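Show me any protein, fold above all:
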Amino acid sequence: MNFWETKSLAEMSTAEWESLCDNCGKCCLHKLEDEDSGEIAVTRVVCELIDLDSCRCTRYSERCTLVPECLDLKQHDFSGYKWLPDTCAYRLLTIGEPLPVWHPLISKDPDSVRKAGVSIRSYAIKESQVEDMEDHIIGWIK
């Protein structure tokens, strides 16, 4: 059996935890919250620290210090984070769902996320290229 099928997120080692990230980059997309409705808009605007080819943070160990809005997901309860993408391994495992077939732990291919069209690589833009984030909304989370 695979570790993600037998352990809770809290029981995982740091290496196991980190291997769950598929490097899609979706959690690094900026979100905007409507103050009246509470709805969250997802933009195609991404943090300056992300490498758009690999969809990985270039300063991962320092990210929460360099970008105060960045969250260390391991420190939080996932049940309340509806802004995480539906495909996120952390979110899927929290609700008892399996990892998708394209997840690198399943496919054994680190490029399977890009091949499956799940990564932000083809559409994300850095925040330094944007004047108004509202012009770059790509969807809503209800």
Observations:
- The chain is about 20% helix and 15% strand.
- The chain has one domain: 3-141.
